Amino acid sequence: MVRLKDIAEYVGVSVTTVSRVIKNDSSRNVNPETKKKVWQAVKELGYTPNEYARHLVASSRQQKKRTKRIAWLASPRLAETNPYFSKIYSGISETLNSAGYTLLLLSNEDLEDEALFHQMIREKEVEGILLIDKVDEKVLLEIKDLLPVVGVDFNYSDHAISTVDYDREDAAWKAVEHLVSKGHQRIGFMGGEIGADMASEKRFKGFKKAMNEFGLTIDKSWVINTGWCLEQSYKSAMDLLSQPSTNRPTALLCAGDLLAIAAMRAAHELGLTIPDDIGFIGIDNNEMAQYVHPSLTTISIPQYEMGVIAAKTLINQIEDHPNIDLKTLLPFKLVVRQST
User: Fold this and answer.
1) Is the pTM of this model over 0.90?
2) Domain named HTH lacI-type: which ranges (predicted)?
3) All domains of the chain in start order, with CATH
4) CA gyration radius for the chain?
5) Interval 114-123 mean pLDDT
């Protein structure tokens, strides 16, 4: 078993310095470069604290103390202010509370703090982790090697971990099918991808697949990457819909309801009638969708239930240790309203 002494010799510092770094002791400053070398040695040597020694109990049956703490890796903005993710968060937190677990919110910035990462993950102060935000592949592999992990939503659907999501391609296909049933042939797509080509985004793949299967042409100028920015959605829609009627789509599939609502405002300001001049369909069934005018047709995603299933999947991994990665796709449904 690797000891603090081994790390100290490897780095060329004292055992006290190594201990201070690992315990994140701020009583005396340690050179940042030294800290970096210590944490690198922790990883390379495979140091793991002796948890049994730390949690000795009076009885002869020495057992590791359970924390019943779960980490949710998502930025506070997603968990608290984004309506889509806040519903998932509610499903997760309520399910964990009912099972006697507590939920700890972590961000990517927290994981970049080696002391906190060591404390939370390597020393297993949390028993499992739910992933929303995308993390570095090396970090993901290390986390998976140490703790049960469940990915929620799209970032982890193609990784070798248990995931809970919905079929994004099929949802977009269903949206196009609905627009075609309403007589639309000139259909545009408004989505968002940050730091990557939108061609890899699954809802866009579903849009392309449906357009091809229905024999419809995709006009590249009608495909808009908003970067999930509502202001960009509004501005792009203003540019697109201000074109002559022969140069613009008759309907827009928006990858999120909020993008659709922002684009609908642009249509109103341009004097266009919805759905006669331009139809809109969204994806997710945001609470606002039923209150905008006209009310927004959308593909309803069971966000709260995604959180519930994700939490139950993680609890099952923690308590029953199944040696299998589960890929769970929840059903969606078309909700027809006035915008189509």
Assistant:
1) no
2) 2-58
3) 4-47 (1.10.260.40), 69-166+304-329 (3.40.50.2300), 168-300 (3.40.50.2300)
4) 25
5) 75
